[in-house]
Write a structure and sequence with these properties.
heterodimer; A: mainly alpha; 0% strand; elongated; B: 71% helix; flat
């Protein structure tokens, strides 16, 4: 999962009760979450209960952030498929932008007699899919930004206890997260 | 320490906050719908966990006595856990369970936005408490 070398680490026994039920949804697996959390914990190497709690929170936020990124990708794929299935509908980029900014009444999704400017098919479907799903995507982007903001806040809290641990975690995060995100689905 | 004037103003303002006024408003029972607006300290289900966590946090700071600040921190940590679980259950019941509903994402977004307000408050409380612990 992660490119970060990890040494085995176990959460404090006293905290097991609170770490027992991670907020998993859909087909997310407990063992994946545990491996993700322990990869982060191995970087921080928490020395007391407060650092363990902050590390857990950092892992939870990162996990939820990844979930939103996956949902965003799914939505775009779904909308791309929808665009492909209804490929008779042409979308004009300029019309779409005007509609988005509220300059002109919606005309972008109306059926056109003439074909729009020719784009490579797959790219066109992707663009159309992105456009038709942009309201949802915008909302998810806002949530993703909010997760990143909160994760930075937790990192600052960790920094309050140990500057070195916070720096190590900040440096290792892209490897752990991207490792998790780019893993092939089973 | 707040001034006498501020205490009097707080008391006077608090008297105005007496909940919903109309009969329909009272029947909606908004405050009891998810329970996030009330502190978990009042919920007996959490009191043991708050004491346990507050005790461990106090000991981690080298204190033998459990302070109210440690309780505040423990309460905020448990509150954040509770909010996270509610969010997960919203994803499960709205987004993942009902995949045929085209409006499922809009419904989920609406509920998550409301939840975020409580989460931000819990974060601030935890941060304040941990800094003073």
């Amino acid at each position: 999962m992660s490119k970060v070398p990890t040494k085995p680490i176990k959460p404090l026994k006293a905290l097991e009760k609170f770490f027992n039920c991670p907020p998993l949804v859909g087909n997310e697996k407990r063992e994946d979450y545990d491996a993700f959390f322990l990869a982060i914990a191995a970087v921080v190497n928490p020395t007391d209960i407060i650092l363990w709690l902050l590390t857990r929170e950092y892992a939870d936020i990162s996990w939820e952030h990844q979930r939103e990124r996956r949902i965003k990708a799914e939505i775009i794929k779904l909308k791309q498929r929808e665009a492909k299935n209804s490929s008779g509908l042409g979308i004009n980029l300029a019309d779409f932008e005007r509609q988005r900014l509220g300059i002109e009444s919606p005309s972008a999704f109306q059926k056109r007699d003439a074909k729009p400017e020719v784009m490579e098919d797959e790219s066109r479907y992707l663009a159309e899919g992105f456009m038709s799903g942009h309201f949802d995507v915008d909302i998810i982007d806002t949530r993703i930004a909010s997760y990143l903001f909160r994760r930075s806040a937790v990192l600052k809290d960790i920094e309050h206890y140990s500057d070195v641990k916070a720096r190590k975690l900040e440096k290792a995060t892209p490897d752990i997260i991207d490792g998790e995100f780019t893993e092939d689905p089973e | 320490m707040p001034s006498e004037r501020k205490i009097a103003a707080n008391r006077s303002n608090a008297k105005k906050s007496t909940g919903p006024r109309s009969k329909a408003g009272r029947l909606r029972r908004n405050a009891l719908r998810h329970g996030l607006a009330i502190t978990i300290r009042t919920d007996p289900k959490y009191s043991d966990d708050i004491e346990y966590l507050a005790g461990m946090m106090s000991r981690a700071r080298g204190r033998q006595q459990v302070s109210d600040i440690a309780r505040d921190a423990a309460e905020a940590v448990l509150d954040l856990n509770r909010i996270r679980k509610i969010r997960a259950s919203l994803f499960d019941t709205i987004y993942f369970a009902n995949t045929a509903d085209p409006n499922r994402l809009a419904g989920l977004n609406d509920k998550l936005r409301k939840l975020e307000r409580y989460e931000r408050r819990a974060y601030s409380r935890r941060k304040r408490a941990l800094q003073s612990l």
